[in-house]
Amino acid sequence: MIPAPEHLVILPIVLPLVAGALLLFFNDQERVLKATITIGTAVALLIVAILLLRIAHADGRPGGGRVVVYLLGNWPPPFAIVLVLDRLAAMMLALTAVLAIPALVFSIVRWQKAGPNYHTLFLFLLMGLNGSFLTGDLFNLFVFFEVMLAASYGLVLHSSGSLRVRAGLHYIAINLAASLLFLIGVAMIYGVTGTLNMADLALRIPKVAPESMMMLEAGAGILGIAFLIKAGMWPLSFWLPTTYTAAPAPVAAIMAIMSKVGVYVILRLSLLFFTKETVSFGFGTNVLLLGGILTITFGAIGVLASQSLGRLAGFSVLVSSGTLLASLGLFEVGVTAGALLYLVSSTIAISAFFLLIELVERGQDQFANVLAVTVEAFGEGEEDEDVEEEVGVTIPGTLAILGISFGACALLLAGLPPLPGFVAKFIIIDASFNHGALGDTATIPSAAWWLATFLVLSGLASLISMSRAGIRTFWAPVDVVIPRVQLMEIIPIGVLLALTLALTVQAGPIMRFMQATADNLHDPRIYIESVVDAPRSVPRGREATR
Amino acid sequence: MELVLSLGIGVLVASGVWLLLRPRTYQVIIGLSLLGYAVNLFIFSMGRLKSNAAPVVPGAEVDPSTFADPIPQALVLTAIVIGFATTALFLVVLLAARGFTGTDHVDGREPER
Predict the structure, then answer these.
(1) Fewer Cβ in 10 A, N or C end of chain B?
(2) Closest to A94 (Cα-Cα) out of A54, A60, A61, A121
(3) What crossing angle do the helices spanning A162-193 and B70-101 adopt, rounded to 10°?
(4) What's the CA gap between A223 and A191, in Å, rounded?
(5) Chain B: residue nearest A191 by CA?
């Protein structure tokens, strides 16, 4: 049992805030210093996240788990703002740090030079992400969302350019509108229940008078739409592929988790608010299921239709979001556990893929790449200018490494063994079919058939599209332009992919953790009780008098 | 008072949504601002309308129903600040887009007629 140092919980928010503010005092020319501080902070965040993970998972029992509550301002719980750490929050913190370090290392070579205050914005983005995962207060969630979004606006526009500014304009407009919906939802929920503390809400919602329930559900629905816009559910997702494609590679790599923040909040709030005691138990699950399946379909069609690697990755984000939303829509503990593993593996995969694309495309003419499919369809165009002196086909080392990484990404996104994309999808399908206990002959719900069908089909679409893109990029070109890749850029991708391999190797213990997390989510009594009964800390001097 | 407030919010939202759907960036930003005002009023109304009542309760032995709810007021304050900041940021992006594309159309190019 590890003792919980009281203030460890707030470190994931304070560290990036202080470091980011500190960096503002240095000139942008001092890149080595800035990069060192930023990466140092990210490493510290990872260490803190792992410590928190061990605290939250301390007893390791499925039904147990420890919820650490941090009272900001030391007010008694229903008042003021609380930070709450449970297994899910700790897992998301760790995932954020895991994605941040490779993205930052990757950006040392090129991207950090492309515009001002890159590191500060990146750290504030991390602060917003960590805050959203930790907070136990609905309005505070809005504030951290805004911190995260404001930083991401700056990062999407990083290194400027017409394409980025246009994509950024749409991205900002949509997210501002979504934030307004968020506020309306929060206000309606407050109007009905009179509280904003998530745990307190969970206690009060069962006691809400039936005639007010409609108002509450409307509020929850509007709130949900705000998160579904972030998560990219069809038809709220048309902004997503363009923005992710336009964003600089390391930014897109960290934004892979931003779409998952929406999924995280939906997962947390829907299971906390509409517990078995409420009349609206399972509110909105049909919307999630149907919307998720439509998102998978839209994403898969987009993946098939993508002519450039960037858009392919953008639509892969949608497939991933759709899979998660549809799995949550099934409302099963086992499916949720599988979905959590899918969340981790697909986020890492997409993050690595965005980094990889930038390296691969560096060697190519952008224009030629977009036209490639058209050229295939209409027959070869005229031969390009002069033939290179090299005749024999030699695969250079760089291309081989890039190719292998690309193959690994393809396996991950399509969900093929041995990488964890397969394990996660298998668990989701398995859990949705074994509705009751194993071997229970109860009928398989039709929703499970739909989900399984679309999961497999979307995997097929990803596979077709990725192989096509891979062949076109690595095998077909005769005059291969070897992209200039530095070691600092290829190592982060390698580390991310190695992590996914570790997820497969350690699938047993990790799945036990996911199962325990899902159990806690579907039965949030520990979460609620821990927050409501959180003891106020007593100042040192006064301890003796008590 | 309820009627006036709800009418006000309704008019603001209607104009805001209409402007938000217009193709010019300046109309979009004004639409977002109007929507922001409407939402702020809406949050405020969620604490129940009450005039001439203080939001701060002096001590424990008072009837809370005679006081205004302070939380929505605090929320509105935060929302105003955040809304102001994001609008300013959006304005900068709007100007940048105008500079890059030479048009104030949201898609960066004039529609073909």
Answers:
(1) C
(2) A54
(3) 170
(4) 14
(5) B46
* Number of neighbouring beta carbons within 10 Å of residue A214: 11
What is the rounded CA–CA span in Å between residue A193 and residue A186? 11
Report the topology of domain B2-51+66-101: Helix Hairpins (1.10.287)
Q: Does B12 touch chain A (CB under 8 A)?
A: no
For residue A82, list its beta bridge partners: A71
Cβ contact A298:A318 at 8 Å = yes
Say if B80 is an interface residue toward chain A (CB within 8 Å): no
Q: Would the ipTM clear 0.90, i.e. be above it? A: yes
Q: Using the beta-carbon criterion (under 8 Å), do A173 and B97 form an inter-chain contact?
A: no
Q: Domain residues of chain B, as ranges? A: 2-51+66-101
Instruction: Name residue B74's amino acid.
Output: A
Pick from B35, B36, B93: CB nearest A172: B93
Question: Residue range A244-265: average pLDDT?
Answer: 90
Model confidence at A447: pLDDT above 70: yes
Per DSSP, the residues of B8-69 read HHHHHHHHHHHHHTSSBHHHHHHHHHHHHHHHHHHHHHTT---SS--SS--SSSS-GGGS--
User: How does pLDDT run across A526-539, given as a tens digit for each residue?
Assistant: 888 888 888 877 76
